[in-house]
Amino acid sequence: MSTTLQFAGAGTDVAFLAARVLFGAVIAFMGLNHFMNVDQMSGYAEMKGLPAPRFGVVFSGGMLVFGGLGIAAGVFPALAAGAVALFLLVSTPLFHNFWAVPEDQQQSEMTDFLKNVVMLGGALVFLALSSVTWPYAIGVGLF
After folding, report:
1. What's in the keyword line of the UniProt record (predicted)?
2. What is the pTM of this model?
3. Domain ranges for the chain
């Protein structure tokens, strides 16, 4: 059974909608970037030791596009937020392992690591709220 997410008023409903759209759009754009730069990203994934790097780039790009659009539109919110969270949980320590790169790369990798941790936090918030009906959402599926 789903309950409706209730905020203090319409202004907070709009703020939640804006947060969903901004977060989801950035995530979906990251996924599109996987498709637009498959060769470059596959090379990086191979360098980091990912098996089947091209498949991994394409598959993860699909996860991000699905997850980002799902969060933005409120479609299958649990699956959408779960896909984003899973991607970030796996990719963050694998690709941005600042503790294991040469010193001249550590700051850049740490920055990317921390950005991903922040996005993971956002994805987990949306996942936690996926069992309630989101204001201004298309509202298809709870899973």
Report:
1. Membrane, Transmembrane, Transmembrane helix
2. 0.89
3. 7-133
